[in-house]
Structures are given as C-alpha cells and as structure tokens.
Design a protein that fits this description.
The chain contains 11 helices and 8 strands. The longest helix has 16 residues. A hairpin with a 5-residue loop joins strand 4 and strand 5. The protein is an alpha+beta fold. The chain has 2 domains: 132 residues, no CATH class; 93 residues, Arc Repressor Mutant, subunit A (Orthogonal Bundle).
Amino acid sequence: MDDHLTTGYRELQPRVELSDHLSCLWFQVVVPGDPVEEVLVLPDACVDVVWRAGSAPIIAGPDTGPVAHELAPGTVIVGARFRTGLAPSLLGVAASELRDAQPPLETAWGRPAARQLEEADRAGSAAGMLEILQEALVRRLATGPAADPLIPPVVAWAARPATPQLHHLVRRLGVSERTLRRRVEERVGYGPKTLQRVLRFQRMLRMGRGAWSLADLAAMAGYADQAHMTRESRRLAGVTPARLMAGGTRRAQQRSASGGAR
C-alpha cells in the first residue's frame, strides 16, 4: 500500500481475502497547522473498526442517529467498514450489542489482540495502520460465525425504493417475523424496518446531489411525501434535508454504499 497517502478523507479497496466482508478501508488525515476538522457521521447500516493513531482501536456500531467528531490537527485515523450484516463474522460479537455504541476493540477480541495493533511499529502512518488492521482481520477469517443467508435478501428488500410490506418478505423467506427480526438484529444491529429507514435515508443523500426539488427527491427516494422525508431526516441526521443538501451543518462524512451504506 502506498505509504504517501494524501490528506483528507478517502476510501480504498480492501485486500482480496477480505472483500466479501468489507465494503472498504478508509483513512482521514488532518495536516498539522490546519483547523480542527468537524465531522458528522450519519447512519448507514454498517459497523466499522476505527483506529486513531496513539489511541486504542474501537468498534463504531450501527448508529440510529448522527455522531459528531472533532479531529485535531495532526490526527491520523483509519478504519475498516464491514458490509451490512457481516461484522459479527469477524468481530465475534452480535451487532445488536454495538448499536449506537463505540466500545474498545478489546471487548470483542481481547486485550492481547488489540495491544498487537497498538504496539506495532507501523502504528503511526495511515498506510501502515491499514496494513496492520487488515492483517489482524485476515487472521480472524476462520474464527467467527458463518454469514447468515437471511441477511442478503433482507438488505435487498430494504434497499428498494418501493418496498413491499414486511409480511410479504417473511412469507417469501419461510420464517416467522419474530425469527427474522431476531436474526437481522443480531447481524445488522437493528430490525428490518429500521434498516429500511436507514437505507432509504442514504438513498436520499446520494440522490440529493442532483438538481432535484425536495418534493421530487422525496418521491424518488421512496418517501411518502416531502414531510415524511423531513421527519426522517430530523430523526436520523438531526437536521432537515434542505440543510443537508445546502451543507448547512458540520461537514457530513458521506460513506460508501457498497454492501450497505456508511
């Protein structure tokens, strides 16, 4: 990996061995002397391992609301973003236990494994930290539970702009609604309806980069109307769609939607 990674926020492809589990690697570097970076991370149905140079790695669980961060000048921070529903396979902990939380990585992997990352001789540059993190994830490929075959059809259902009612999905999958909700919460962090809301919100953010009216944007993103979109934006981002599209909040860290958004 290139040791001269640029500053700012960027996403990179993971190693081939990890591509089924990770949607991307990412890093953010704030140059010494630059102003403090203010970042607003929005719900995206993903779980990340996040590692700031000089600090212990953490797990950023699936959020149901905005999370604000301040990055001081000189900050080097890297992460690995799991595809929706696949974090438990490598972390060894249910996603429902991580919802709206940021526990230390050692709570899932144990202190010795986390210390190996922190004390590695490359734990100072973004490129070196990303390599170390990938090496640690590769070592855990055979240790966690297998992927749940129910998750891909549920994610596909939740990602559609015009989504059939949940009972249609339940009938097609041949499980009870209670069983489906339990298994989705375990792997994604919340139930199918919340997943649907989050993916629709992410779809609105992506489409909002075009020159649409808010009413047209609401219709295309799959909301009942503009008022529905505004209510959901306030719940998930804390602000209206108009403010998000105008950039009137702290800079929102838009994250990749491959395998789920974040």
